[in-house]
Structure formats: C-alpha cells, structure tokens
Design a protein that fits this description.
The complex is a heterodimer. Chain A has a 5-stranded parallel beta sheet, sandwiched between helices. In chain A, 50% of the residues lie in helices and 13% in strands. Chain A has one domain: Rossmann fold (3-Layer(aba) Sandwich). Chain A is an alpha/beta fold. Classes of the chains: A alpha/beta, B alpha+beta.
C-alpha cells in the first residue's frame, strides 16, 4: 500500500483528489492540507508520496517546501496549474521526483505516484521542457545526447521514439532523463546541508514523533 | 546605434564631405607637381605621403562608419604639419604655384578634426596647424596678406565643418528620438489590439462558460466538462505566452489560432512556448498553416485525442514541433502524406523554412518545422 498526501490550498482540488484517489487500489490518501507546516504537523511518520502544489499562497518557497517534505522522509511529486518553468527547474534541483500539470487524467497521475513510490522519477514533457530550455547560466552541463533525448521527450514524443531517434534503447533513454534530474539535484545541493536538515527536523517537531 | 540611424547617417555624410574636400586638395597637388616639379622625387614623395595618409584616415572611417581619433591626429600632424616642412626643407626654392598646395592639406585636416574631435582637442589641432602655417610663411618670407589668407581659410574650414557636423548631429538625434517614439507607439498599439483580442476571446469562452454554470447549467455534464477543459488549456497557453519575456505577438497569435481551431474540433493540444523569435507576418502565417495541417493529420489519422505542440526560439531560428503518440505510419509510403507534403512541406518552403516528418508504425509521429531552413 502506497501512502499519499496532498498539499494544496485549492479546496476544490483537494476535494477532487480525495474522491479521485479513494477508489484507486494500492493507494491510500492519508492527509490533505493547505500548507507544508500543517501537513508535517498532522502526519506522524513518513508519507510515501506527497503531491505538492508548486506555488502555495502562504508565500512559502517551493524549493524549501520540497526540502522539508524530503527531510520528513517523503518523496515529492510537484503539481501545478500552469507550468512555470523556472520554478519547475528549482523544484527538480530541490529534490522533487516528478512534475505534472493538474489537467492530467487519473491514470497518468496514478502511474506517476507509483513510479515515484518505487524510487523512480515521474518524467513529463513539461518537466523535460523546463530543463531543456533552462536559460540559467549556472545550469548543469548536459551532454549532446542527453540534451537530444531531453528535447525530443519535451516535445511530447514517447520515450520509445526519442530512443529510436537517438539510436539507443528505451532503458538508456530513461537513464538519460534520470541523469538530467540527478545533475540538477547535484547542482542544487550546496544549500542542502546536514545541519540545515537537522534544523528543519527540529523545527518540524519530527524528532518528538 | 544601428547603421541606418539618423546619427549614423549624419556621421557618414560628414565623412564623405570632408573626404571630398581632401580629395580636391590632392587633385590640386597632383596638377601642381605634374606642371611644376615633374622631375623632383621629393615632391612626388610628399604627394604620395599625403595620398597614403588620406586613404588610411578616410578609408578606415568609411569602413567603420566613424573617424578614428588617432588616425585624424596622425593626419593633422603628418599632412598638416610635417609635410609642409619636408617640402620646405628638401623641395628646393619655393614657388607658391608649385608648393602652395601642401599648405591646403592643413585646412582639410582641420575639417576632419572638427568632426572627429571634441572642442578642446579641436582647438589644440587648430593651434598646432596655425603655428605650422605661421612658421612656414615666416620662413619663406610670405607677405602678411598671404599669411592672413591662409589662417582665415584654416579657421573657416574648421568652423564650417564643425557647424555642419553640429547641425546634422542634432538633426540625426532628433530623427532617432522621433523614430524610437513612433516604434514605441506602434508596439503599444499592437499590444492594445492584442489585449482587445484576448478580452474578446475570454468573453466568448471562459466568461460565457462561467456565466452559464453560475446560471445553473449542470456543470458535471460531459459537454460542459469538456468545454471547461478546453478553456482551461486556452488560459494556460495565454499565461505561458505572456510570461515569455521576449514575447512576440504575431507568431504567438498565429499559433494560437491554429491550436484553437484544432481544439474546437475535439483534439487536445498540449502547448509549450519558449523564447519565440521575431518572425515576419508571412512566416508566422505559413508556420501556423503548417501546424494546422499537422494537427489535422493527428486528428484524422493518428487515432489519439491529444497532440503536443512546442514552439521555441534557438537564437534567431524558430523550431516548431507537432508530436502525437498515436498509431504512426511508415514515412516512405504514406498516402496520408499527401496533405503533409502539399500543405506542410510546400508551405514552409515558400517562406524559406523546412519541414521534416518522422514516424514509425506504433510510435506516433513528429512533424518538425524550422525557419529559416
């Protein structure tokens, strides 16, 4: 059983998620709150996958939200209404394991949750597009092959056709996409220190759980 | 500042005018040497040095569009000050008709200095040239009237060139400011028209739907939900397009029309834009037509309800892809390629672009449009 949480301040979306996920076998929605602090206060022990709204109205920083949830032992699938590219990139760098727009259908969402719960990455064209067209001069260096697969996947192609066009297997193509995510996370790591983590854990009151 | 600006045109004109002034002095010099000193090597060398120095100064200015301050200083010193003394020292007994032309070089050097220098440097150049004239006239024992004539023509060359340059420079700047204002006004007008377009579209779509739901239409019926989904997609694209800092209305608006016509026929188009480059109206129209045809192909042949459209600018180049994850085809022997071949390839080729179609059975299809090719 995969435990799932939702952090979003849109009431309608929370209600919709609850009714959506209620009937999905293998998933259990254990908490849905409007802020990360609230979420961490109500859940004790790790939730496997948290669906996190990219931009919450409480003024919190997406990267910080993701780090706090990861520090609490959850994996994070970021969702948003509009694919805001620079925020998607910083979410990936902060440790998000996937990104989806909110207009995706239930099977896509469930597949993403299952992929992330199994330790993988839920790739989406939007996430690939944000990384492929990242103009930040500090962006990690991608090899030409990685960039080609990333661009093809970002354009909406299946992994299979992106792999064929690059002359590689589907598994290798997926490795490339995973590697892009890993490079971003490595580049984003300096702000993610052990003391930072420990402080967060204390702040969130997790050590008393 | 670009090449065609008013300021640049003023500058080019002054380079040309002073160049003609110098050329007239060199022609006088050529006649003087041919007539009076054909057998004297030094006279030819002086003429050659004056020609070389002039070619260097004005040739460089024409090539770069602006005088080089160092080159003009070198001309003031060499043509205006050194050559008269060379002619004086080694040219044998001076004859005004034969050697007077060398003194003229100083006046055209002063005119170039008036364009190339600031006020202080110009005053410095005029002082140096005046001193040369006075020294040369004293040495050859020229009359006071001749010296006065030389000095007046030197000063008036500098002053006239300076006044012309000041006037044209000012006109050029005014012209540039006026065209910048006109451009801004044009852009403002285009933005306004674009906004009105958006309001109209929002009125016909989102506002109409929300009003209907508020009025009690069953929001859960499949038709209303489908319509809501389509309009949410429209708003999403709208936000993405306006968020693009380098947003160009023409291309974005043309693509938007293509997407909306496909969506109105029931195809979901997931759209992503990035850095759309500036493209002429006919290119925007051709790309949008090709996209429309590619989306039509997806809708009719691919057996899928969704397509992906991406439009990105890579430098000045536009790359647009229409991708589906449908049933695909063998690219070489497609009857359905007729539409693709005619509408997509031909349409893009017309405006200097290129279309590439890639597909395999079971793998969906990719139509990639590039402009310029």
């Amino acid at each position: 059983m995969i435990t799932v949480g939702v952090v979003d301040d849109d009431r309608m979306l929370l209600d919709g998620m609850r009714s959506w996920l209620r009937d999905v076998p293998g998933l259990r929605l254990v908490a849905s709150t409007a802020t990360v602090a609230e979420f961490l206060a109500t859940t004790c022990g790790a939730v496997d996958v948290v669906l996190l709204d990219l931009v919450l109205r409480d003024g919190s920083v997406p990267a910080q939200n993701i780090r706090r949830l990861r520090a609490a032992g959850s994996r994070v699938l970021v969702i948003s209404t509009v694919p805001d590219r620079s925020r998607i990139v910083s979410a990936v760098a902060a440790g998000a394991d996937g990104y989806l727009t909110k207009d995706n259908d239930l099977p896509t969402l469930v597949a993403a949750i299952e992929e992330i719960a199994a330790g993988g990455t839920a790739h989406s064209p939007e996430m690939a597009f944000a990384c492929a067209h990242d103009d930040d001069p500090a962006r990690p260096r991608l090899s030409p092959r990685e960039l080609q697969v990333l661009l093809d996947y970002a354009s909406g192609m299946t992994l299979k056709s992106a792999a064929r066009r690059a002359g590689i297997t589907v598994n290798t193509a997926k490795d490339y996409l995973d590697r892009v995510k890993a490079k971003y996370q490595q580049a984003g790591r300096p702000t993610y220190t052990k003391t930072d983590l420990a402080r967060r854990v204390r702040e969130d009151g997790l050590d008393g759980c | 500042m670009n090449v065609g600006s008013g300021l640049q045109r003023a500058r080019s004109f002054m380079i040309l005018a002073t160049m003609l002034y110098r050329a007239s002095h060199l022609v006088i010099g050529l006649f003087a040497v041919v007539q009076h000193r054909p057998g004297l090597p030094v006279a030819w060398l002086v003429l050659l040095a004056a020609v070389g120095c002039s070619v260097w100064v004005w040739g460089g200015a024409l090539a770069r569009g602006v005088f080089s301050g160092w080159a003009v200083w070198a001309d003031v010193v060499v043509s205006g000050c050194v050559l008269p003394f060379v002619a004086l020292e080694w040219g044998g007994p001076l004859v005004p008709a034969a050697d007077g032309w060398v003194m003229l070089l100083g006046t055209s050097a002063a005119s170039a200095a008036a364009v190339a220098f600031g006020r202080i440097a110009l005053a410095g150049a005029v002082v140096v040239l005046t001193a040369t004239h006075v020294a040369v006239c004293r040495t050859v024992g020229a009359s006071a009237v001749a010296l006065d004539g030389h000095l007046i023509s030197l000063a008036s060359s500098a002053i006239m060139a300076w006044v012309f340059w000041w006037y044209l420079n000012r006109q050029g700047r005014l012209l540039d400011a006026a065209s910048a204002r006109a451009l801004a006004a044009e852009a403002q007008k285009a933005r306004y028209a674009e906004r009105i377009d958006h309001y109209r579209a929002l009125h016909d779509t989102v506002l109409a739907t929300l009003t209907a739901i508020a009025g009690g239409v069953d929001a859960n019926s499949p038709q209303v939900r489908e319509r809501c989904g389509r309009e949410a997609a429209y708003l999403r694209r709208l936000i993405q397009r306006t968020a693009d800092e380098e947003y160009r209305p023409e291309l974005g608006a043309a693509l938007e029309r293509a997407v909306r016509s496909a969506e109105s026929l029931g195809l979901r188009v997931i759209t992503q834009y990035h850095n759309l480059p500036e493209a002429p109206a006919e290119v925007a129209a051709a790309v949008a037509d090709a996209v429309t045809e590619a989306l039509n192909n997806v809708r009719i042949h691919a057996g899928t309800g969704r397509a992906y459209l991406t439009a990105t600018g890579v430098g000045d180049r536009l790359v647009v892809t229409v991708v589906d994850r449908g049933r695909g085809f063998v690219p070489d022997r497609v009857t359905r390629g007729l539409g693709l071949r005619r509408s997509v390839h031909a349409r893009l080729a017309e405006v200097g672009g290129r279309a590439v179609v890639d597909s395999r059975p079971g793998e969906g299809a990719v139509v990639e449009l590039r402009w310029p090719e």
